[in-house]
Amino acid sequence: MSGRFRELTPPDRLVMTWAWHQDDGSRGHETEIVVTFEDVPEGTKLRLVQSIFENVENRDMHGMGWNSTFDDLDRLFA
After folding, report:
1. Share of the chain above pLDDT 70, in %
2. Which pTM does this prediction carry?
3. What proportion of the chain, given as a percentage, has pLDDT over 90?
4. Per the omega criterion (within 30 degrees of 0), is the bond before 33 cis?
5. Looking at the predicted structure, is the pLDDT value of residue 60 above 90?
6. Reading across the β-sheet that carries 13-18, which strands appear in turn?
7. Which member of 4, 8, 27, 50 has the greatest number of CB atoms within 10 A?
8. pLDDT at residue 77 greater than cutoff 90
């Protein structure tokens, strides 16, 4: 996968592109990811929004991947 950072606004916001590399080496469909960070009494609230997907299947697969990653972070910091 590859992408580009479009916006870096420390410490609150990160915007980047995301595309998987295809078997022929070309970049596939590009999505945009917006990550925001908010101070909360318990620490930091992270919000990630990724859009626009080619289809529902790709959206759901990315959702499973991100949720798995966040579950791992929860276990790491528990």
Report:
1. 100
2. 0.89
3. 95
4. no
5. yes
6. 5-9, 13-18, 31-40, 43-51
7. 50
8. no
Token pair belonging to 63 = 């959702």
The β-bridge partners of 8 are: 14
- The encoded tokens of residue 2 equal 């590859």
User: What's the rounded Cα separation, in Å, for the pair 35 and 56?
Assistant: 21
The 10 Å CB-count burial string (b at 16+, else e) for 47-76 is eeebeeeeeeeeeeebeeeeeeeeeeeeee
Q: Six-digit token pair at 5?
A: 């950072």
pLDDT surpasses 90 at 78: no
Residue (of 14, 17, 28, 26) closest to 58 by Cα position: 28
Supply the DSSP symbol for 21: B
